[in-house]
Predict the structure.
Amino acid sequence: MHIKNKDFGSDIKWYDITNKELYMNRRRFIKTAGKVAVAGAVSLLAFPFANRISADDGKVKLRGIKKSPFSTDEAPNKYKDVTSYNNFYELGLDKRDPARNAGLLKTRPWTVTIDGLVNRPSVVDVDRLIQRYQLEERIYRLRCVEAWSMVIPWVGIPLAVLIKDAEPTSQAKYVHFTTLNDPEQMPGQRTGALKWPFVEGLRMDEAMNPLTLLAVGMFGEILPGQSGAPIRLVVPWKYGFKSIKSIVRISFVSEQPPTSWSSAASREYGFYANVNPDVNHPRWSQKTEQKIGKLGRFSTALFNGYGEHVAHMYSGMDLRKYY
Ligand code: MTE
């Protein structure tokens, strides 16, 4: 028997009843299908955008996705490029390691703690976030400090929406993000490549900028492990290392927080890390970039081409200084 497009409500999760299990155990299917119907009805009442996740032919798809005017009209890279050439040191140093080791990462269930200088701290399940908030497709350019770039069709929730719901206090000036710390699931954390867990930060106005996205999916599906499942940051006008993966904590703080790469090598990586063709990294000229999947080199754009939305945040700042 082949079951297609089975929707799951908030109590029964897709990872509890995969298509494979449905094949294997008809009795369990009959039992769970009944529960799904009830849970689906309850979740529709509780959430305005219920039943956002569905399993179809082994893929876990996201539904109810709105297109965004912030998307680039450049053609996205192929799924294979985006998921086989990754930087995710917790899953290995070679570009192909994260895909190889992604299976070690258990991404459901997964909670994110939102705390610090907020009136409404919470610990929230990622699938609740997916059901609670409007999902948007954002096709963004991602520019790595290593001078390569890709175009990725993310699916996510604008970070500003979550921040407003958390009600930061007037003392909150920065947002600090933390990746999961679990060497069992993340073999790279058994090495001293970086100080673990990986941490990143944004100034409050950067975090509130409409371009800043918490991605939960790509190509219409949930994120694969190597891409930072189940939830990661995407800040398209900054070098890719700011886009922290597999987030477990979002804290609101009063001082500029430490960030992994600037702590590891402060002369090479800054807190701001805005894409800038005029400020070279000691190892990589930033004048040009290699677009993965295309031949030749292309000129780098200031703020990765997103200046009209973000340049105002840095007026009066010496962009060379704030590498
Ligand atoms: N997040 C964590 N937790 N660990 C990492 O090693 N690498 C960063 C960023 N986020 C990294 C991370 C870097 S250097 C880049 S370029 C992007 O993820 C790459 O994202 P991608 O692999 O989805 O293209």
The radius of gyration is 20 Å. Confidence is low (pLDDT under 50) at residues 1-12, 16-49. The pocket of MTE is lined by residues 86-90, 142, 144, 179, 198, 227-228, 240-241, 243-246 (CB under 6 Å). The chain is about 20% helix and 25% strand.
